[in-house]
């Protein structure tokens, strides 16, 4: 298989270990004087966006940054709990850049690009240094040095953490670096602003249309380059662990303007979330993977055993992860743990009122280490659990069930993080790059900060070096007129429908379809059915949605309507992608393709590629472009955690 | 415990910053006690939209008590009756059948209302921009373990850094002071060796920004600490005062 000519991954020359060094020493540079004349738009100020905006401003670029929350400090990254990986080998347990690289490629079930993953592992150590220097209060040992814990899918302790609030502390670090640049005038921050269109001039990304969410006004912003750091699209499932506002709109607008979408069906279902309790439920809450360091997962051995967990004796319990995967036990990767939980529940051995839950039990750890130790490690998670469920996990096991958590798919980018639209970049969860078909725990924070702090400051120069003579294009340019007009017309159309269903109604319907047919397990038949359902839902949306209020005011329902409209179109693409990929890999489980003992079975002969989808017009079928994945260093094998 | 309760909601409605605003009362029958407070608001809004009325605007995002976006003043208390809990983490099992719940926005002149329960808290960003950071450009950092930090201090710094910037302290304070917020950041950075070089300037600049934003002065009533959903300790304000004095003395 050869890669599509439309996809140039721009992987540097040289051996795996030398590629990034080679690029850094040969990449084109922009002089400080020229940087001052270059405008960079950063959409999103989560870990990826805040770190990129701050670092680029430090280098001298003029940065304009956007987020839809009222402050950059509130991006969804704030909610990350468990930790961030780095190959520091502080524990002297045999960790190395290579091992982190290897674990990530294997964890991703051999569907990620080797060169990118190696770079990620390489810069991981610098991230920790940078964050500590910013004052991020990571957990420490009594000797004053940094502490580590383990996450799923690995056998070393390389995860740095700040209690159960690692994302918060990392984001506040990046946010403070960003605010420092705001004070200096190097970054202009636009909070409560949503990018609603990309502006492309002569084939290059040259700006955005942003909506001021307070006034409803549309604004035009020019940039020599545009960076999308807008996060993942897990909310396509309606219920997920993502923040309520997380959405695909920025990436989707870019997709419709020429950016290919990579592996849209690769979504991560996280094994340990608080189960659904009722129809009114608006989101799901994650219980960090780190809990699996000390918690043991089990269900009753007998089908339909509804006794209280305390009344079920040791012999009557099935610690199914320890039984099935003795080498990794409770710390198998997420996709494996989630499918095993689903299987146990499908067999009728699920617990709790709905039967859609398994136990995560701390009894043994509390007996072994004492409640104090457990509370120091996970206190805030236990509290969070108790607040939501009214049950005390120190006394009775947690009930957990898998939930949508992360999207490995995203805009296709080359090694420099540039999409197929020149000058348009995608960073963090918004791109498809490093996690293949399954992301390992504590690797998203690492990737977001790697992209923002350490990759884009180098690779952006490669493109902008050619642009030093381009003076700012006035926003009166016809391309801006056109983009703004398109947004305006779409809004008018939405407001004019005045149908019967709320945006939530339609979003829930979409979520149901995607969860049932494009969730933890997928079949050709189901996916075909779902495709028809989503196409119908799109029509339903555009003829029956009801949006209250007016355009020129603070109107969150209108904003949500725009996002749900984009989610519906994305849902269609996810289904097409899942249908095309007639193999199982990582989180993508096609029932047709499994091993004898029910594990995901890859088909490397036919599917060792990244699927990059090109938008070809409203209602038209998208075209598929393949980027061949070649493994020079790691040899793909059937993944085993046994 | 009852599985569902009947409530009345008395909610502040205000079209925009200029509007003078008023209370409106809504009946909420059959509220499940398993719902979160914001899910109950979703149910109300769903009904309002179906009835062709304007839904109640409120800020929220993570719905798990960490982003600091939700900000409701419930029955006269920031984030409602439960200690150490944000509005989004508050569940209806803590209310009783037949109760009337009053819901207002944060009230402080430095936090103008945008609509209904949504306020503008950009004053907090300005305080951070004035000095709530350690000046270290990307790429300049030494090895993370080159500077050990006493565990007790690191833990204390973490406790301060756990502030979610929601503004409950300002909403609670009779002077609308933001000192708990400000002191948490000063304390976080003052406790770490990395924060040492900028210790003096930081505190002066942040206090100036605080006052410029129109936030009030602290008279040590301790109300903020009692209502803070992250239970940030008022002892940080004491540290702030010491830092301020130290900075003042060394400037003279
Ligand atoms: C509950 C939870 C726990 C997690 N825990 C961990 C963990 O322990 N370790 C780990 O490695 N990973 C974890 N993850 C994953 C990780 O948190 C995310 O993948 C990561 O934070 C994403 O960062 P980001 O910067 O790419 O995007 P985000 O943080 O999602 O930021 C997106 C930004 O884009 C802005 N935005 C979006 N659309 C627009 C638009 N149209 N216009 C303007 N602005 C826009 C938003 O305002 C926001 O600023 C967790 C995820 C969840 C859900
Ligand atoms: S919504 Fe995030 S803290 Fe309440």
Keywords for this entry:
heterodimer, A: 642 residues, alpha/beta, FAD/NAD(P)-binding domain, Flavocytochrome C3, Chain A, domain 1, Methane Monooxygenase Hydroxylase, Chain G, domain 1, 3 domains, five-stranded parallel beta sheet, five-stranded antiparallel beta sheet, 21 strands, 37% helix, globular, B: 252 residues, alpha+beta, Ubiquitin-like (UB roll), Fumarate Reductase Iron-sulfur Protein, Chain B, domain 2, 2 domains, five-stranded mixed beta sheet, two-stranded antiparallel sheet, 8 helices, 7 strands, 35% helix, elongated, binds flavin-adenine dinucleotide, binds FE2/S2 (inorganic) cluster
The ligands bound in this entry are: flavin-adenine dinucleotide, FE2/S2 (inorganic) cluster
Spatial separation of the terminal alpha carbons of chain B: 63 Å
Q: CATH class of the largest domain in chain A, anyone?
A: Alpha Beta
Helix content of chain B: 25-40%
Q: Measured on Cα atoms, how large is the radius of gyration of chain A?
A: 24 Å
Please name the CATH architecture of the largest domain in chain A. 3-Layer(bba) Sandwich
Radius of gyration of chain B: 20 Å
Using the coordinates shown, work out and report the CATH topology of the largest domain in chain B. Fumarate Reductase Iron-sulfur Protein, Chain B, domain 2
Number of helices of chain A: 17
The pLDDT mean of chain B sits at 96
Taking pLDDT < 50 over at least 5 consecutive residues as the criterion, the unreliable ranges of chain B are none
Overall 3D shape of chain A: globular
Quote the beta fraction of chain A.
Answer: 5-15%
Number of domains of chain B: 2
The averaged pLDDT of chain A comes out at 96
Number of beta-strand segments of chain A: 21
The CATH architecture of the largest domain in chain B comes to Orthogonal Bundle
Share of β-strand residues of chain B: 5-15%
The CATH class label of the largest domain in chain B is: Mainly Alpha
């Amino acid at each position: 298989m050869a890669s599509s000519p439309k996809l140039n991954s721009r992987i540097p020359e040289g051996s795996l270990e030398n590629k990034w060094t080679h690029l850094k020493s040969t990449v084109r540079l922009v002089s400080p004087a020229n940087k001052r004349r270059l405008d960079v738009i950063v959409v999103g100020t989560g870990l990826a966006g805040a770190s990129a905006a701050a670092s680029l401003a430090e280098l001298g670029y003029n940065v304009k940054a956007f987020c839809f929350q009222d402050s950059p400090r509130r991006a969804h990254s704030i909610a990350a709990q468990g930790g961030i990986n780095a190959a520091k080998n502080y524990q002297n347990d045999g960790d190395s850049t290579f091992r982190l690289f290897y674990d990530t490629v294997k964890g991703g079930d051999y569907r990620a690009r080797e060169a990118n993953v190696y770079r990620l592992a390489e810069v991981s150590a610098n991230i920790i240094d940078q964050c500590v220097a910013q004052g991020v209060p990571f957990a420490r040992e009594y000797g004053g040095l940094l502490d580590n814990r383990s996450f799923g899918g690995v056998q070393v302790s390389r995860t740095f953490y700040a209690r159960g609030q690692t994302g918060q502390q990392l984001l506040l670090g990046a946010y403070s670096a960003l605010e420092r640049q705001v004070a200096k005038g190097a970054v202009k921050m636009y909070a409560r602003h949503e990018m609603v269109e990309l502006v492309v001039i002569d084939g290059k990304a040259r700006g955005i249309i942003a909506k001021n969410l307070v006034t409803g006004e549309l604004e035009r912003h020019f940039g020599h380059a545009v960076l999308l750091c807008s996060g993942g699209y897990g909310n396509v499932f309606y219920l997920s662990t993502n923040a309520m506002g997380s959405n695909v709109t920025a990436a989707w607008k870019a997709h419709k303007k020429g950016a290919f979408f990579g592996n849209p069906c690769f979504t991560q279902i996280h094994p340990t979330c608080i189960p659904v309790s009722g129809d009114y439920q608006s989101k799901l809450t994650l219980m960090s993977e780190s809990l699996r360091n000390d918690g043991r997962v089990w269900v009753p051995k007998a089908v339909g055993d509804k006794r209280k967990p305390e009344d079920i004796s040791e012999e009557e319990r099935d610690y199914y992860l320890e039984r099935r995967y003795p080498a990794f036990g409770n710390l198998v990767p997420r996709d494996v743990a989630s499918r095993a939980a689903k299987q146990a529940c499908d067999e009728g051995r699920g617990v709790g009122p709905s039967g859609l839950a398994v136990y995560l039990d701390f009894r043994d750890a509390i007996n072994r280490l004492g409640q104090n130790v457990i509370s120091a490690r996970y206190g805030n998670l236990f509290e969070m659990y108790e607040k939501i469920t009214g049950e005390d996990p120190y006394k009775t096991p947690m009930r957990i069930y898998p939930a949508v958590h992360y999207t490995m798919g995203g805009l296709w980018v080359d090694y420099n993080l540039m999409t197929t639209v020149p000058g348009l970049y995608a960073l963090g969860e918004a791109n498809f790059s490093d996690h293949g078909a399954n992301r390992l725990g504590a690797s998203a924070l690492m990737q977001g900060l790697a992209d923002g702090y350490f990759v884009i400051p180098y690779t952006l120069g490669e493109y902008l070096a050619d642009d030093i003579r381009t003076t700012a294009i006035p926003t009166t340019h016809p391309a801006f007129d056109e983009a703004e007009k398109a947004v305006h017309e779409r809004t008018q159309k939405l407001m004019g429908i005045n149908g019967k269903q709320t945006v939530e109604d339609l979003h829930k319907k979409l979520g149901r379809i995607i969860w049932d047919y494009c969730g933890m397990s997928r079949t050709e038949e189901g996916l075909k059915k779902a495709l028809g359902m989503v196409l119908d839902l799109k029509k339903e949306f555009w003829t029956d949605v009801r949006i209250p209020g007016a355009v020129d005011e603070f109107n969150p329902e209108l904003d949500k309507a725009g996002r749900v409209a984009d989610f519906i179109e994305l849902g269609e693409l996810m289904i097409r992608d899942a249908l095309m990929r007639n193999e199982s890999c990582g989180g993508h489980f096609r029932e047709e393709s499994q091993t004898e003992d029910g594990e995901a079975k890859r088909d490397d002969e036919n599917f060792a590629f990244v699927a990059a989808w090109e938008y070809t017009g409203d209602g038209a079928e998208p075209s598929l472009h393949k980027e061949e994945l070649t493994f020079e260093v790691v040899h793909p094998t059937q993944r085993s955690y046994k | 415990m009852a599985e569902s309760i009947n409530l009345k909601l008395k909610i502040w409605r205000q079209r925009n910053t200029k509007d003078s605003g008023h209370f409106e009362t809504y009946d909420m029958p059959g509220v499940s006690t398993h719902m979160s407070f914001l899910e109950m608001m979703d149910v109300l809004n769903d009904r309002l939209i179906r009835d062709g009325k304007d839904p109640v605007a409120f800020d929220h995002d993570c719905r798990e008590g960490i982003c600091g976006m939700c900000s409701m003043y419930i029955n006269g208390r920031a984030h409602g009756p439960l200690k150490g809990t944000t509005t989004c983490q508050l569940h209806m099992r803590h209310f009783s059948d037949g109760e009337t719940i009053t819901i207002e926005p944060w009230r402080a002149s430095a936090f103008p209302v945008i609509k209904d329960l949504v306020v503008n808290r950009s004053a907090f960003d300005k305080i951070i921009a004035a000095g709530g950071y350690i000046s270290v450009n990307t790429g300049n950092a030494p090895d993370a373990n080159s500077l050990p930090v006493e565990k007790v201090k690191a833990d204390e710094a973490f406790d301060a850094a756990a502030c979610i910037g929601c503004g409950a302290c300002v909403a609670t304070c009779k002077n609308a002071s933001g000192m708990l917020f400000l002191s948490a950041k000063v304390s976080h950075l003052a406790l770490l060796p990395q924060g040492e070089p900028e210790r003096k300037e930081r505190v002066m600049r942040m206090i100036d920004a605080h006052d410029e934003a129109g936030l009030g002065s602290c008279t040590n009533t301790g109300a903020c600490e009692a209502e803070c959903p992250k239970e940030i300790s008022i002892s940080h304000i004491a540290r702030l005062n010491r830092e301020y004095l130290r900075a003042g003395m060394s400037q003279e």
